[in-house]
């Protein structure tokens, strides 16, 4: 069982994540958008959206630190385990709090503002459910750190890095508290879901804007006009 | 000098009757899809009025366009690149749907489903956005013909600037129509605001387009455009804007709005300009200098040096010819009667307007004086400060002198041509009074009053080497991106996602042949085939009926008539049906 969830499943998810994105990008550039609903409602969005997005950016950075950087490295630069913890939990709590409050506002808005709700697809709802569970569990884990003393940097993190090197430590996950296990598995699932949801907009963060010239000129017969017929095998059926 | 060609438009406001045909045909052609209910690439506003979306001209509020810093640098009024990225999660200057209007339909089914009852059932308005019943309180044109203007017009941002002089009373009021499309600016702030770089200006003809495959729905262009001519499709999550009907322009026929304009007041043609000087011109310190600054960017297509540079820049010969015959060049630079809309936004707009003389003429007429007499008209232009100042707020950032000059030219033309048309001795002093020769005045009159289809629209087709890809039979079609007219149904990721659905476009070339043929039926001798899409109900489209066969036998199945190119002159009985050609 744990073999499946902590070894096979992650690989399936990573594969779906990568292949799915390539497929989506080729098949559906047009559907690749934020699907913003700001036009319908702005009062709640103005507060909720920045809170959520900035929050989750920090949460992401936190994960890069916590999962990606081995404990030995931080000790090597002289950051003791204790202080690392204090730092991680305080920043994590602020970011997590902002994320969750933002999320609650946004979900409330989605449910109660008529136009926004009717522009919500079934896939959106499913994705929100998974995303929300992952975030809530993440916050539970962070809060749990204050009381319990599970050192995820010697457990979950090692397991996570192992996946990328082909070194498999399902037993490390087995030893982890349940909330960590579920958080990890659900997060993996979210990655598998990713390419098929509006979450793809994360990968179009427009950093190029900072360096490109203001006015873009393009030639008419530029092949990228969107004027090419679908590639073989990608035609829409039934039209 | 870096010569570039720009497709541009001029509208003669005196002739606009406010019929909205242009808006309706444009909508039917481009934005009749769900998600674009509120999108009017072409809209016609009654001025004074709030415009569409409401008060879009108030840039202190919406912060569209550009501004110059004290050190003379041009920057986006909405903030620099960092600010744009920092506010990407919630655009602070996006008009909400209520600033446009909530689109609706009617609950027609109750008309047929309702049970027997004492009162006639009514079809109630239903919001197309939430699906709920709604109260219709505003629309794209709520203040049409000054309807309700006593309540709303004082919020017109342009009127506010001269407000202390205006009493909005019906006896003293004036009004005219302002049809608007995207300006296809030389310095488009929509493109500059787009974080994804999806909005681009085509280097051949200057048309500004949104690449639907690159747009990610950040909505910054909507805020960036001071004319609010980029719209957000709320179903597909992508920005859309007027395309200057580029698929039509590419084969040499005018935009849908021009084609169908009842007043025939639109002109389309090329302008050559020096791309290297655009930034400098857009950065002049004084708003009121922008009109002249923009004119100085345009190049004289007759100047041999310009022609040489243009050729070096790869502008084809027939485009240069078209630039020389361009009605836009004539109206902007030769007669100088066309003015830009809101030059103070510094985007260098390329849809210009001939300001209306009618508010002035109306007043003179109402007083019982002769409204075609130069003296009377000139006096009225000088006396009627309010309409003139209002026009100046729209077209010259408040500088009345150019508006004055233009109106006087139009007034002079009116009286001069009356003499000519009445068979009296024309008075050479009239054109001289406005700095024109008699010949020039007559030419201007011809262009403004008589010009035919192919003089109003001088559109060189996109280049022949590429022409194969422009025909409907080609393997590629510029329209078949999704959300374009090739709109498909719903893909797996929501409205419009999925790969494009190719569609057949009508054969534009044929339409053009018809339009310029001056005959009612399909032009004889020009290639044509049955295409009912182009048929306007006059006569019978050639090739619809088979040429009467020689003998009594049935028509051989192989001899399908649809490629017959001489329907109008066909032998036998079809002559009567397609006989429009005889009307020549
Ligand atoms: S008028 Fe058109 S080209 Fe100019 S800024 Fe607006 S959308 Fe862009
Ligand atoms: S079709 Fe022509 S006359 Fe009618 S509203 Fe439009 S611009 Fe004016």
Fold topology:
The complex is a heterodimer of chains A (239) and B (584).
Chain A: H1 2-27, H2 43-68, H3 71-76, H4 81-112, H5 114-118, H6 122-147, H7 156-165, H8 170-175, H9 178-193, E1 217-218
Helix pairs in contact in A: 1-9, 2-4, 4-6, 6-9
Chain B: E1 3-12, H1 21-30, E2 43-47, H2 59-62, E3 66-68, E4 74-76, H3 81-86, H4 97-100, E5 104-106, H5 109-113, E6 125-127, H6 149-152, H7 157-161, E7 176-180, H8 189-193, E8 199-202, E9 208-210, H9 220-224, E10 230-233, E11 238-241, H10 246-250, H11 256-260, E12 266-274, H12 278-282, H13 290-297, H14 304-312, H15 317-325, H16 327-334, E13 339-340, E14 351-354, H17 358-366, H18 374-383, H19 385-395, H20 400-421, H21 429-433, H22 438-450, H23 453-456, E15 490-491, E16 494-495, H24 508-515, H25 574-577
Parallel strand pairs in B: 1-14
Antiparallel strand pairs in B: 1-12, 2-7, 3-4, 5-6, 8-9, 10-11, 13-14, 15-16
The complex binds iron/sulfur cluster (SF4) (2 copies).
Q: What fold name stands as the CATH topology of chain A?
A: Fumarate Reductase Cytochrome B subunit
* Order of helix and strand elements from N to C terminus of chain A: HHHHHHHHHE
Helix content of chain A: 55-70%
Largest interface: A-B, 59 and 72 residues
- Work out the radius of gyration of chain B: 26 Å
**Distance linking N and C termini of chain B:** 48 Å
For the largest sheet of chain B, list the strands in their spatial order. 12-1-14-13
Class by alpha and beta content of chain A: mainly alpha
How many helical elements of chain B?
Answer: 25
CATH first level of chain A = Mainly Alpha
Named once each, the bound ligands are: iron/sulfur cluster
Low-confidence stretches of chain A: 222-228
Q: Could you tell me the radius of gyration of chain A in angstroms?
A: 21 Å
Using DSSP, what is the number of strands of chain B?
Answer: 16
Q: What percentage of the residues of chain B does DSSP assign to strands (E)?
A: 5-15%
Assign the CATH superfamily of chain A.
Answer: Transmembrane di-heme cytochromes, Chain C
User: Shape of chain A from CA axes?
Assistant: globular
């Amino acid at each position: 069982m744990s073999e499946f969830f902590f070894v096979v499943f992650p690989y399936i998810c990573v594969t779906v994540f990568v292949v799915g994105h390539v497929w989506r990008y080729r098949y559906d550039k047009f559907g690749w958008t934020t699907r913003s609903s700001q036009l319908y409602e702005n009062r709640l969005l103005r507060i909720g959206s920045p809170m959520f997005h900035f929050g989750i950016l920090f949460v992401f950075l936190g994960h890069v630190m916590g999962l990606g950087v081995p404990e030995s490295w931080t000790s090597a630069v002289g950051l003791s385990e204790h202080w690392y913890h204090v730092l991680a939990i305080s920043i994590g709590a602020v970011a997590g709090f902002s994320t969750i409050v933002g999320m609650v506002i946004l979900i409330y808005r989605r449910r109660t503002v008529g136009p926004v709700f009717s522009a919500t697809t079934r896939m959106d709802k499913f994705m929100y459910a998974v995303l929300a569970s992952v975030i809530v569990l993440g916050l539970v884990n962070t809060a749990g750190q204050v009381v319990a003393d599970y050192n995820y940097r010697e457990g979950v993190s090692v397991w996570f890095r192992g996946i990328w090197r082909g070194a498999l430590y399902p037993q490390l996950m087995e030893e982890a508290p349940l909330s960590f296990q579920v958080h990890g598995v659900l997060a993996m699932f979210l990655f598998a879901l990713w390419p098929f949801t509006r979450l793809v907009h994360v990968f179009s963060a427009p950093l190029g804007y900072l360096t490109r010239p203001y006015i873009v000129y393009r030639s008419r017969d530029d092949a990228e006009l969107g004027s090419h017929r679908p590639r073989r095998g990608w035609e829409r059926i039934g039209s | 000098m870096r010569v570039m060609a720009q497709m541009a438009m001029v509208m003669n406001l005196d002739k606009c009757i406010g019929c909205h045909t242009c808006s309706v045909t444009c909508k039917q052609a481009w934005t009749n899809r769900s998600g674009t209910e509120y999108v009017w690439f072409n809209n016609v506003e009654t001025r004074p009025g709030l415009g569409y979306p409401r008060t879009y001209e108030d840039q202190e509020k919406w912060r569209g366009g550009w501004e110059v810093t004290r050190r003379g640098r041009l920057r986006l009024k909405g903030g620099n690149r960092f600010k744009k990225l920092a506010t990407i999660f919630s655009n602070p200057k996006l008009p909400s749907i209520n600033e446009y209007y909530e689109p609706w339909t009617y609950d027609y089914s109750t008309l047929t489903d309702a049970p027997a009852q004492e009162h006639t059932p009514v079809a109630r308005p239903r919001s197309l956005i939430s699906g709920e019943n709604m109260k219709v309180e505003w629309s794209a044109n709520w203040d049409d013909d000054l309807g309700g203007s006593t309540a709303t017009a004082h919020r017109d941002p342009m009127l506010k600037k001269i407000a202390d002089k205006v009493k909005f009373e019906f006896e003293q009021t004036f009004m005219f129509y302002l049809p608007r499309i995207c300006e296809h600016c030389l310095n488009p702030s929509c493109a500059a605001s787009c974080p994804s770089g999806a909005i681009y200006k085509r280097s051949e003809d200057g048309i500004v387009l949104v690449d639907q495959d690159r747009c990610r729905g950040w909505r910054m262009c909507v805020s960036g455009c001071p004319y609010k001519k980029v719209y957000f499709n709320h179903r597909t999550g992508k920005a859309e804007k007027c395309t200057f009907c580029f698929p039509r322009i590419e084969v040499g026929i005018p935009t849908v709005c021009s084609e169908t304009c009842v007043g025939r007041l639109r002109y389309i043609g090329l302008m050559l300009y020096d791309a290297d000087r655009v930034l400098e011109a857009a950065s002049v310190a004084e708003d009121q200098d922008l009109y002249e600054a923009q004119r100085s960017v345009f190049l004289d297509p007759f100047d041999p040096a310009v022609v040489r540079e243009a050729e070096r820049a790869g502008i084809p010969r027939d485009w240069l010819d078209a630039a020389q015959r361009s009605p836009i060049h004539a109206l902007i630079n030769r007669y100088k009667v066309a003015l830009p809309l809101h030059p103070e936004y510094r985007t260098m707009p390329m849809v210009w307007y001939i300001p209306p003389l009618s508010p002035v003429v109306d007043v003179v007429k109402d007083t019982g004086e002769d409204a075609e007499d130069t003296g009377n008209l000139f006096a009225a232009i000088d006396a009627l400060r309010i309409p003139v100042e209002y026009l100046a707020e729209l077209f010259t950032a408040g500088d009345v002198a150019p508006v004055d000059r233009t109106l006087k030219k139009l007034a002079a033309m009116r009286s001069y041509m009356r003499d000519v048309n009445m068979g009296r001795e024309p008075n050479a002093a009239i054109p001289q009074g406005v700095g024109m020769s008699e010949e020039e005045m007559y030419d201007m009159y011809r262009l403004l009053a008589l010009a035919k289809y192919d003089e109003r629209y001088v559109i060189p087709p996109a280049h022949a080497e590429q022409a194969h890809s422009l025909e409907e039979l080609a393997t590629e079609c510029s329209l078949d991106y999704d959300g374009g007219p090739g709109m498909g149904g719903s893909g797996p990721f929501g409205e419009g996602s999925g790969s494009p659905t190719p569609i057949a476009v009508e054969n534009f070339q044929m339409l053009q042949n018809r339009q310029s043929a001056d005959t009612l039926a399909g032009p004889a001798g020009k290639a044509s085939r049955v295409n009912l899409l182009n048929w306007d109900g006059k006569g019978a489209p050639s090739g619809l009926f088979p040429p009467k066969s020689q003998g009594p036998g049935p028509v051989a199945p192989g001899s399908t008539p649809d490629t017959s190119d001489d329907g109008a002159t066909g032998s036998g009985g079809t002559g009567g049906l397609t006989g429009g050609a005889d009307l020549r």
